[in-house]
Amino acid sequence: MIIGYVLMSWLPNARESVIGEWLAKLVEPYLSPFRRFIPPLFGMLDISPIVALITLQLARSGLLSIISYF
């Protein structure tokens, strides 16, 4: 969902569509804490979705290792 939301920013008026608004309601609550701490690079390049995806991957790996331990 995060990747789709980021790709929609490249298309004009895609985020104003029904699907774009639906994705925004689901993705923005997760991305907003990252955006508060990670400023855009060069004023326009937002890397917070990349950091958010890496965080999700690390959490997934941690949970899987905990589950496999038991």
TrEMBL record:
<protein>
    <submittedName>
        <fullName>YggT family protein</fullName>
    </submittedName>
</protein>
<dbReference type="Pfam" id="PF02325">
    <property type="entry name" value="CCB3_YggT"/>
</dbReference>
<dbReference type="InterPro" id="IPR003425">
    <property type="entry name" value="CCB3/YggT"/>
</dbReference>
<dbReference type="GO" id="GO:0016020">
    <property type="term" value="C:membrane"/>
</dbReference>
<comment type="similarity">
    <text>Belongs to the YggT family.</text>
</comment>
